[in-house]
Amino acid sequence: DVSTKTIDDERQPAADPHLRSAREVRGYHIEASDGSIGHVEDFLLDEQTWTIRYIIIDTRNWWPGRKVVVSPHWISAVRWADSTVAVALLRDEIKNAPEYDPSRGLTVEYAVRLDDYYARLGRKE
User: Which of 28, 60, 73, 107 is most buried (CB neighbours < 10 A)?
Assistant: First the structure.
C-alpha cells in the first residue's frame, strides 16, 4: 500500500490561528469547470511529508455512490464564503476517474490506474 493517512487518522492541535483546518473543508462543494460534481469527503495525506496527496470527492450529489480522488494541484480556488472548492477539471473527467474504495485505501495498483487515467487526459500533477 502507498503510505497515506486521512486527516482523521492523526489529531494534531492547530499551531497557527491564521491557517484553516483541512477538517473545515470537508463537506465543501466541488465545482468543476462546467458545474457542480459533489463534495469534499476527506483528504489523503502523505505520511512522510504530511502534504495533501489527494482530495477524496464524494459524487453522490451528482452521480450516486461514487468516490474518486483528484490531485490538489488541480484546485483553482477555495471560496470560504460559499464553502466551495473549484477544480480545473470537467465533471466527466471526475465522474470517469477510477473509483476510490476507502476500505482498501490507496494501493499501489490504484495509484497507477489513477496516474494512467489522468495522463491520458493530458493532466499532469
Answer: 28
Task: Read off φ and ψ for residue 18, nearest 5 degrees.
Answer: -85, -15
Residue type, 70: V
d(CA 13, CA 36): 32
Distance CA 106, CA 5 (A): 9
Q: Please state, in angstroms and rounded to a whole number, the distance separating the CA atoms of residues 123 and 125.
A: 7
- 9: pLDDT strictly greater than 60: no
Residue 71 CA: distances (Å) to CA of 14, 29, 49, 68, 114: 24, 16, 16, 10, 10
Q: Which of 47, 65, 57 is nearest to 7 (CA)?
A: 47
Q: Is 76 a residue whose pLDDT tops 70?
A: yes
Q: Phi/psi of residue 108, each to 5°?
A: -60, -40
List phi, psi (to 5°) of 118.
-70, -30
Tell me if 100 sits within 8 A of 67, measured CB to CB: yes
> At 19, is the secondary structure helix, strand, or coil?
coil
